[in-house]
């Protein structure tokens, strides 16, 4: 059952679960996708994303990827109810934060981890983001909030609507590639190039080649997009000369989710400006078909509301 970024309201829970997670019936929670073992060295340090049981490349289990044949069959967010296993990682939504903004908690948590953690962004630095999807938009918001002097978001010609959203958050949008992109970044930065580059694009692999060429002295390249095909050509001598850092990332640390929830409650990130396309559970298949065909919505933010097409009397 699909659906791995989940926000929901607690319908019922036992005494032990209530104590363990500090939750009560009726609380709103963000549920991380990880189903960690809780016993390995990464788990003991709270690094659930590194638990072997959550490693997608090795058949790991996650919310949204557990077969419905595994009882009780409710491990995905595209359903009216989600079962929280004892190994789930939920976060209580703070008072005063509307659900419409709380749904950004996980993508923003990822962005904070990649921009501030892996990217080590400092105030006054320049950030370049490849890919104006919901992670790219969240990364632009996170970088601006962290005091970046300049945020540049790169996309394709077909991404114009999403690049306009990035611009509304204070970013500079670009649709260039190769030598033209390198030249444009040089012009925008006065020749110093980028301090942090985030490659969030799943394809093509050439974006990684371009991303590496945009780094300035001591630059940090954060690679989050799993390329298909994975091959890419990079001038490693240039990376050495620049004393650059290249780091791969996936997911986020739990504290980044808590940080994102507090930032969203405080406001000022601008993510409320991003339109939300709401889909009923009965229309999820059609939406997935549209996305696969490249005819999905202009906004990168699509939210499934499982109870949307149910009469109000059935929701209570």
UniProtKB/TrEMBL annotation:
Source organism of the structure: Prauserella muralis
Q: What is this protein called?
A: Alcohol dehydrogenase
Supply the alphabetized keyword list.
Oxidoreductase
Q: Which intervals carry biased composition (Basic and acidic residues)?
A: 307-316
PANTHER family referenced in this protein's UniProt entry, alphabetically:
L-THREONINE 3-DEHYDROGENASE
Family annotation (Pfam families): ADH_N, ADH_zinc_N
Cofactor(s) this protein requires: Zn(2+)
- Residue span, Alcohol dehydrogenase-like C-terminal domain: 136-264
What SUPFAM superfamilies does the annotation carry? GroES-like, NAD(P)-binding Rossmann-fold domains
Q: Which domain of life is it from?
A: Bacteria
Q: What Gene3D superfamilies does UniProt report for this protein, alphabetically?
A: Medium-chain alcohol dehydrogenases, catalytic domain, NAD(P)-binding Rossmann-like Domain
Q: Provide the GO MF annotations for this entry.
A: oxidoreductase activity
Residues in Alcohol dehydrogenase-like N-terminal domain copies: 2-89
Enumerate the residue ranges of region (Disordered).
293-316
